[in-house]
Protein: DNA-binding protein HU-beta
Amino acid sequence: MNKSELIEKMADAADISKSAAARALDAFTDEVAIALKNGDTVSLIGFGTFAVKERAARTGRNPQTGATIEIKASKNPSFKAGKALKDAVQ
Structure:
């Protein structure tokens, strides 16, 4: 399912226009991104938790040349599914 299909399903399920569903989805994703940027987590009980995981700096290898390279530390968004979502998928 892509974004436009999700918007269409949201509009049908909530009995709202597609433009309203698109604005709601955009607002949701924007606010999650802002919260993660500020170091917060976003927990939706039953659905899951969005958080930021930090990866430490490490040494890697260039597969083409075999030379060692330093990989910088980074922060990556992560999602951990909640119990209700896990149960719905099984």
In short: The chain has a mean pLDDT of 96. The helical segments are 3-14, 18-37, 83-89. The chain is about 45% helix and 30% strand. The longest helix spans residues 18-37.
